[in-house]
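Memo subject: From amino acid sequence to discrete backbone structure tokens
Action wanted: Derive the backbone structure tokens from the amino acid sequence.
How to read it: Take the token row as a discrete description of the fold.
Attached in line: The record itself begins immediately under this heading.
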Amino acid sequence: MITRIKIDGFKTFHNFEMEFSPLTVVAGLNASGKSNLFDALQLLSRLAETEIKKAFSEQRESSELFTNFGEFEGEVLYAQQLEFEVDMLVNRSVKDNWGGEATLKYTRLRYQLIIRKEVDERGIEHLRVQKEELVNLKHNSDDWIQRFIPNEVIVKWRQAPTGKRGKPYIKTEHKTGGALLPFRKTAKLEEKKRPLMRSRRPCSAERIRLIFHMYLRFVRK
């Protein structure tokens, strides 16, 4: 389940942050932003399933999804990037779309995605993944699980802390010739790199990312 979301630069959201309890009801006046919240979740869900341009076009023109700051000297100003940050609690036993099964050591994860709008020398607008990162949340700084998960069942959701993981599961690296997305395995910490948006059968670390994406697919407007 999603336990926290942060949104910046998407529609009416500017440094917006919301925490979710196991039961969360979203209510508010008309035009207060409820639909925009669900649109943001829907966009994240579709980005897990299709390429950026198609996911954006399913809602409306891509530029309209960026925060509108109003008009200045006859020109409408928009945010130049969208930022999403999502904390989540996943099951310890997981299975991906390829039939792979695993027991996760870390079930509290944080996913961050930054998409930037760029215009090339021909005046054509492009959407680029500026940053994509997946890390585990540290036990001593994770107060959500302490507040919402009873002590008698907390062991079913996460094990006692052993060892230390310092490297992200996913972290974008920008180098000459394009961006690379390293995927680090959880067991031997073997690192593999691939160009962003390239499709292939996932290694074990990539499965963690796909598990996160599968959770997002359950979120529907």
Observations:
- Residues 183-207, 217-221 have pLDDT under 50 and may be disordered.
- The longest helix spans residues 34-47.
- DSSP finds five helices and 13 strands in the chain.
